[in-house]
Amino acid sequence: MRFSTALSEEANQTAIAFRQRVAEADIPGVTDIVPSLTTVRVGFDPSKTTRADVTAALKQVIHMPVSIDASPRRRWHIPVAFGPRHAPQLYQAAELAGVSVETAVAEITARNLRVIALGFAPGQPYLGMLPPHWDIPRQSELTPHLPSGALVVAVRQLIIFAADAPTGWRHIGQTAFQVYRPQAPEPFAFEPGDEVRFAQVGDSELDVLSNRTDTNGGARCEVLG
Questions:
Q1: Are 87 and 184 in contact (CB under 8 A)?
Q2: Would you put residue 193 in left (φ > 0), alpha (ψ -120 to 50) or beta?
Q3: Is residue 69 part of a domain?
Q4: Are residues 123 and 180 in the same domain?
Q5: List of residues 6+ apart from 154 with CB closer than 8 A
Q6: Does the pLDDT value for residue 118 go beyond 60?
Q7: Is residue 197 part of a domain?
Q8: Interval 31-59: pLDDT, tens
Q9: What percent of the chain is predicted at pLDDT more than 90?
């Protein structure tokens, strides 16, 4: 189900709300409901239902009157280091955004960002949206390796890396936060619609958080409302 061909706050909130409505409808045979930036993918078991039946049920759901509740239900507070050792491309990203490094860090840590989608890797969040001047492009070439927990930026969005991987996004910070812990009761830390607030810490403090086993990178989850 596609709600827009371009990313917008309204389209993203509609997709997340629709995902919840489909889940509540408990359509027979549906196996997974996955929201993206402006779409929702609905999977089904063909041995239990048909595409036509699922499509008909989804049409009923989409025509139900609904008001979009954009209020987050959880807010994450996550420490992040912006020092040179942990943010090798922060200066370059700030320059592309037309701000100083100090202003870049201030803008990133001052905002309540929203999880607008999970994807590319298990539990990996796309966070948005930064101010318009952060509509900076991806790199033309890949960075061969970024560590798990890396904070990267492009096209007004931030991502916390779920695992060591190459990327075309710029590395502007580092967390000790694991977005995906397969052995945990809830393997994915985030849900679409969650809110995230970053807190700046020094390089040495992040090193300490990385070595602790009693906390997920010093992060704290606040339940709202």
A1: no
A2: left
A3: no
A4: yes
A5: 136, 137, 138, 168, 169, 170
A6: yes
A7: yes
A8: 998 888 888 999 999 999 999 999 999 99
A9: 70
Total count of domains within the chain: 2
55 and 87 housed in the same domain: no
For residues 33 and 55, membership in a common domain is answered with yes
Contact, 140 vs 154, CB < 8 A?
no
Residue 15 DSSP SS3: helix
Q: Quote the tokens at residue 100.
A: 């100083």
DSSP assigned state of 88? T
- Helices 51-62 and 9-25 pack at an angle, to 10 degrees, of 120
Same domain, yes or no: 88 and 47: no
For 44, the domain range is: 9-62
| DSSP one-letter code for 90 | H
Predicted structure pTM score: 0.83
93 CB-contact burial (10 Å; exposed 0-12 / middle 13-18 / buried 19+): buried
What is the structure's pLDDT at 104?
A: 98
How many angstroms separate the CA atoms of 192 and 94, rounded?
27
Of 96, 127, 135, nearest in space to 109 by CA = 127
pLDDT at position 66, please?
Answer: 58
Q: What pLDDT digit, counting tens, does each position of 5-19 carry?
A: 888 888 888 888 888
